[in-house]
Write a structure and sequence with these properties.
Elements: E1 6-10, E2 14-16, H1 27-44, E3 47-51, H2 57-71, H3 75-78, E4 95-97, E5 107-113, H4 129-154, H5 161-165, E6 173-179, E7 189-194, E8 200-205, E9 211-215, E10 218-222, E11 229-233, H6 235-240, E12 250-253, E13 260-267, E14 274-275, E15 294-295, H7 296-308
Helix pairs in contact: 1-4, 2-4
The structure holds 2-oxoglutaric acid and fe (ii) ion.
């Protein structure tokens, strides 16, 4: 088993996206440097931090503040937007959820899908919540497209390849999360170690901390830095790149005496898409594929069983190794 030790020295590579919003003459060279930094981060840990990403700091703070106000509502209120069984065209039902009581994950969350396509479930309170969350959804969707374009370049794919492959925004979703305070030094699990089954994940977090990445010497915490967005690539990129780019294992550890609020935005393929190592990373370079192909929706279903039927041993949770050759 991986070491569960933590250290607090987790400095993620910082990628400045300003040149992607600039028409200045020297922006092209700066864009190339940022792209190279993303490439190195993806091959190294799969995690990086972005700055000058176009989502204003005050806006991010407002989102987390409204999220805290939402979760502070009484349980009876929040439960009014429990998703209706089987009512959803999306991969998961929209609405407020808590992991089952026997889950080791001690958190609660609200899932929001593409507001242009889906009726999301909201309460009347807190005031302004819906507009701000939907604006956040739109901003992170656009940011996802930019990161995807950068990844396309890092992976040496033909221009527009990923945009064309991942051309449907029905399976993306946003999760507002509140972690409960730890009750003892033993009871700290917030989210068990996992890799994201995504293409790209964004995390915004408050100043409490608790997100940790598994490195070669155990888990390392990702310190909160106001106004920055944490990015990690997910299993889809790991498979497409035939494991050249890493989908990192990470977890959330709860802190004593305080709730933690975060927002995760998941950029996903449509469930009907086929996922397998691309020829650029396999046949064309004489490498054997490390994964067999699968339909993305099937993998999502497999991963859902970890939530609906948590394995008694967390190490037995279903993951991308299911398809490993
Ligand atoms: O809350 C966080 O910081 C990350 C949550 C996470 O890893 C996930 O929802 O997949
Ligand atoms: Fe995650």
């Amino acid at each position: 088993m991986a070491s569960t030790q933590s250290s607090s020295s987790g400095a993620l590579p910082v990628v400045d996206l300003a040149p992607f919003f600039s028409t200045a003459e020297d922006a092209a060279a700066a864009r190339a440097r940022a792209t190279e930094a993303v490439r190195e981060a993806c091959m190294d840990t799969g995690f990086f931090r972005i700055v000058n990403h176009g989502v204003p700091r005050e806006f991010m703070a407002r989102v987390l503040e409204l999220s805290a106000a939402y979760f502070a509502l009484p349980d009876e209120e929040k439960s009014k937007v429990l998703p209706a069984e089987g009512s959803s065209s999306t991969p998961l039902p929209a609405g407020y959820l808590r992991p089952p009581a026997d889950s080791p994950d001690k958190n609660e969350y609200l899932l929001v899908f593409n507001p242009e396509l889906v009726f999301n479930m909201y309460l009347a309170e807190p005031a302004g919540f819906r507009d701000v969350i939907e604006e956040c959804y739109a901003k992170l969707t656009n940011l996802g497209l930019l990161i995807q374009e950068i990844l396309n370049e890092c992976m040496g794919l033909p221009p527009g390849f990923l945009a064309d492959y991942n051309n449907d925004r029905n399976f993306d979703f946003l999760s507002l999360i509140r972690y409960f305070p730890a009750t003892s030094a033993e009871d700290t699990n917030g989210v068990s170690p996992h890799k994201d089954n995504t293409l790209i994940t964004f995390v915004l977090q408050d100043d409490v901390g608790g997100l940790e990445i598994l490195g070669s010497d155990g888990f390392v915490s990702v310190e909160p830095v106001e106004g920055t967005i944490i990015v990690n690539i997910g299993d889809i990129v790991q498979v497409l790149s035939n494991k050249k780019f890493k989908s990192p294992t990470h977890r959330v550890v709860r802190k004593l005496g305080t709730h933690r609020h975060s927002l995760a935005f998941f950029v996903n393929l449509h469930g009907d898409k086929w996922v397998e190592p691309l020829p650029q990373f396999a046949a064309n370079v004489g490498e054997a594929p490390r994964y067999r192909g699968f339909k993305y929706g099937d993998y999502m279903q497999l991963r859902l069983t970890n939530t609906t039927h948590p394995p008694s041993n967390p190490e037995d949770a279903a993951g991308i190794t299911h398809y490993a050759i």
